[in-house]
């Protein structure tokens, strides 16, 4: 006799499909709330600048998030909600008025550098939101806008001479500290960084500072062997910042010492902070940044998080 019963494997496949379909439908009801709070102080910028920022940044960095239909499908939606929450916490253009003018310029500088590094907007985001991509022309518009916010005037001779004298003291390890300061997370000031090899330089034109990044022997060896993805344990960077002064002839001088920042790689000891120990010491007295609050490292992590593909290192070594 003929039978209309389907083979066992077909029935099992059908049941599995039904279960998966039921599961997919059920998770659509698990939707974290993504509210759009009131805008308290939107960024004010020229129309072309604001258009770029709105198109590339507002979905995650403002209170005017525009979710498309495909953004709302779980489990994708869960990641979208998480990105929006983290994005607003780090930078919210709808609460721009809460930042001091200097911090506004700093956030713009940070954002532009993340765009240059290819970290923002997130590649996974622009893959489906193609309109959010920042073109080279868009980037130039943003850079020119930020450059126009910076107004510097030539320093007088007295200021330049005082800065040169301080720099000579820095070179000779003449500091005003009697013992090594220690940050709240236990990382102490490392004076020996001045004997390390410079591996890169940066310029913060938004706040007129010059920066030199030094690397210890382990970091330098990793660079030579191209073993920086990830960096090896024991690698240490010291980023030193000075004010940038220009004389009447346009010659650039190092100004007052601002700070030195350390990144210390140990993926076990600092597992909770992306495998890096963070510390910053300000002024010639090397005052630990953040005081007794160990959570100061969160600020560093939020800034470096988009560079996960580069082991959270912003400035790449100069290639010889």
Topology of helices and strands:
Layout: H1 8-27, H2 47-61, H3 76-90, H4 101-116, H5 123-126, H6 136-148, H7 157-171, E1 197-204, E2 209-215, H8 217-224, E3 236-246, E4 252-265, E5 276-282, E6 287-288, H9 297-304
Antiparallel strand pairs: 1-2, 2-3, 3-4, 4-5, 5-6
How would you characterize the overall build of this protein?
The protein is of the alpha+beta class and 320 residues long. The chain contains 9 helices and 6 strands. A hairpin with a 5-residue loop joins strand 3 and strand 4. The longest helix is centred in the first third of the chain and has 20 residues. The model has no long low-confidence stretch (mean pLDDT 84). Keywords: Heme, Iron, Metal-binding. InterPro entries: Cyt_c-like_dom, Cyt_c-like_dom_sf, Cytochrome_P460, Cytochrome_P460_sp, Haem-bd. This is Heme-binding domain-containing protein. Pfam families: Cytochrome_P460, Haem_bd.
Helical content class: 25-40%
Structural class: alpha+beta
Oligomeric state, counting identical vs distinct chains:
single chain
What radius of gyration results from the CA coordinates?
Answer: 25 Å
- How far apart the termini lie comes to 82 Å
Uncertain spans, ≥5 residues at pLDDT below 50?
none
Secondary structure tally, helices: 9
Percentage beta strand: 15-25%
Q: Sketch the topology as an H/E string, one letter per element.
A: HHHHHHHEEHEEEEH
Strands ordered across the widest β-sheet: 1-2-3-4-5-6
Sheet of most strands: 6 strands, antiparallel
Say how many strands there are. 6
Average pLDDT, all residues: 84
Shape: globular
């Amino acid at each position: 006799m003929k039978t209309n019963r389907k083979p066992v494997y077909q029935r099992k496949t059908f049941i599995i499909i039904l279960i998966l379909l039921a599961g997919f439908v059920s998770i659509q009801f698990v939707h974290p709330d993504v509210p759009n709070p009131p805008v308290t102080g939107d960024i004010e910028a020229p129309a072309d600048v604001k258009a770029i920022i709105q198109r590339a940044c507002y979905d995650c960095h403002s209170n005017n998030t525009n979710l498309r239909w495909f953004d709302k499908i779980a489990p994708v939606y869960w990641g979208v909600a998480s990105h929006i929450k983290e994005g607003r916490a780090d930078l919210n253009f709808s609460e721009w008025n809460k930042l001091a003018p200097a911090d506004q310029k700093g956030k713009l500088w940070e954002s532009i550098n993340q765009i240059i590094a290819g970290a923002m907007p997130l590649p996974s985001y622009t893959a489906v939101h193609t309109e959010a991509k920042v073109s080279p022309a868009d980037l130039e518009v943003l850079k020119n806008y930020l450059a126009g916010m910076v107004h510097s005037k030539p320093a007088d001779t007295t200021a330049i001479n005082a800065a040169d004298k301080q720099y000579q003291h820095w070179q000779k390890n003449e500091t005003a500290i009697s013992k090594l300061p220690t940050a709240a997370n236990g990382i102490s000031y490392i004076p020996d960084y001045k004997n390390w090899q410079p591996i890169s330089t940066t310029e913060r034109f938004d706040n007129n500072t010059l920066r030199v990044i030094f690397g210890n022997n382990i970091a330098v060896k990793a660079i030579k062997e191209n073993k920086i993805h990830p960096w090896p344990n024991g690698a240490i960077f010291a980023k030193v910042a000075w004010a940038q002064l220009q004389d009447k002839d346009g010659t650039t001088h190092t100004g007052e010492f601002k700070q030195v920042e350390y990144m210390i790689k140990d993926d076990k000891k600092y597992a909770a902070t992306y495998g890096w120990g963070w510390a910053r010491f300000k002024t010639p007295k090397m005052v630990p940044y953040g005081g007794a609050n160990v959570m100061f490292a969160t600020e560093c992590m939020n800034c470096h998080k988009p560079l996960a593909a580069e082991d959270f290192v912003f400035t790449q070594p100069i290639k010889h």
